Amino acid sequence: MHIRTIQHAVPTKKVTNDDILETFRRESAGRLPTAEIDKLEKQVRETLFTAGTQVRYKLNDGEKAIDFVLAAGRQAIAQAGITPKDVDFLIYTGVGRGWLEPAMANVVQSELKMPNATCFDILDACASWLRAMQVARSLIQGGTYKCGMIVNCESSLVRSFWCSEIKDANDLKHRVAQFTIGEAATATIVTDENPDDDFYFNFKNFGEHYKLCMIPLDNLADFLPTDPDPRYAATQFFSLSRELVVTTVKKIAEVYNADRHFRDRDYDIAFGHEASQKASEVLVKHLDIPKGVYYSVHPRYGNCVSASVPLGMSLASQEGRLNRGDKVLIVVGSAGVSVGLATFTY
């Protein structure tokens, strides 16, 4: 499999930490005493500082999520020098979506006018894009398909899953991660040009930690073996962030160090899902990756969920940091807990 191009598009509303704090105060006014608002605002500010979140982008007035995934798709088609009819399969991957069925990929296939592309979705939280890459490689190696596109649209997340009524410090604990979320759409085009590629993937799951991060639905109780956590709220983002990060970093390090295919190599550049810059710094230290090798996007774009890695690769390519022939490492940890690792020559 050959990565022909990766392109991205982001909404136009630039949101700083001061903007987040102003929104938090406005949403809390009239519901909480001023002293409590001051206390909670301080905690949010400290969390954003520790996480390294500075800027994120969100949908502006008049913007729609679909606009950005289509923009990224059209840019990718143009950059790859192909036509929509050349695409044999289309995978929509990630958390951002407008419905549960049919596959979100259908609307993208229709709007990009890809009549020959079979299409489907893959959902594995922040690991979704890397999962889709592994599936795409299998499809191409099978010989049936020659050209595929992987898209995600981690946009409209704030509108869809934001909790605007934080009650107290305990409530903030499992909601605070929402303030780090940024939005982005990406499109990756892969082809069969390199049948002797050196892609290597390793995924491990630790399902006993599935309750640490979740966006529940109304019927959650029907799918849990025990009573739901009373802190869950339908369609609202829930995350025990500190425990999730500590657990995920530990599991990534275990998987990485147990696999000689990863630990015994040198890399030109490395990318990861960045729930926070701090988490990435800790992970890089655990994996003994040279500081200059890791490419970070979190301070500039926040936590872009499954778009974090392809966004980073698109930016690094545009900036001349990612070049053909580079040895690439990708490290992803996500809710589940899912751990995904990959290495390849770009």
Question: Can you characterise this structure?
Answer:
The radius of gyration is 20 Å and the shape is globular. The longest helix has 18 residues, at 34-51. It has a five-stranded mixed beta sheet, with helices on both faces. Strands 8-13-12-11 form a four-stranded mixed beta sheet, with helices on both faces. The chain is 36% helix and 21% strand. Strand 12 (327-334) and strand 13 form a beta hairpin. The protein is built from twelve helices and 13 strands. The termini are close together. Helix 1 (17-28) packs antiparallel against helix 2 and helix 8 (241-258) packs parallel to helix 10. The protein is of the alpha/beta class.
